Structure to design on (159 residues):
């Protein structure tokens, strides 16, 4: 377990566990697109399973990301080593936190509405178009949140 706190494999000052988090976040859009392709191929059961699994895993990873920055690494110490100012770092962190919370709320609401619609036998079917539209909005927010996470990682550990 000690190796998780050693210098990671991406060539930055980040610990190993933070590099794993960033690799997961970078691969998340591909995993989501794979899950969407399952729904396109009418494999709805596997689509539901992968979406729930990705949601729980992403919730854990995002939580560990913030736990690492706030608790383990101490944000103040990280900002002292960074090339950006402390106030800019705080603004970036606050914006990224809000974006991540919005992302998880949107994802959870999409999952809950899908579960509810499926119980009423309206998904797939009557509500498929609105489910697809909410999925597209969610995907855009996920892409933005991941980009902000990568930028935060880069400013904190590389710049």
């Amino acid at each position: 377990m000690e190796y998780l706190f050693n210098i990671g494999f991406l060539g930055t000052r980040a610990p190993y566990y933070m590099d794993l988090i960033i690799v997961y976040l970078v691969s998340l859009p591909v995993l989501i697109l794979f899950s969407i392709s399952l729904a396109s191929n009418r494999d709805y059961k596997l689509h539901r399973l992968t979406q729930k699994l990705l949601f729980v895993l992403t919730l854990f990873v995002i939580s560990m990301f913030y736990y690492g920055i706030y608790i383990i690494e101490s944000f103040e110490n990280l900002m002292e080593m960074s090339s950006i100012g402390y106030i800019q770092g705080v603004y970036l962190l606050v914006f990224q936190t809000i974006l991540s919370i919005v992302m998880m709320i949107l994802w959870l609401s999409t999952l809950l509405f899908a579960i509810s619609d499926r119980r009423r036998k309206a998904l797939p079917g009557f509500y498929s178009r609105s489910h697809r539209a909410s999925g597209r909005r969610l995907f855009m927010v996920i892409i933005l949140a991941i980009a902000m996470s990568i930028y935060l990682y880069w400013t904190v550990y590389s710049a």
Helices lie at 16-40, 44-72, 75-81, 86-119, 128-157. Residues 14-157 form one domain. The longest helix spans residues 86-119.
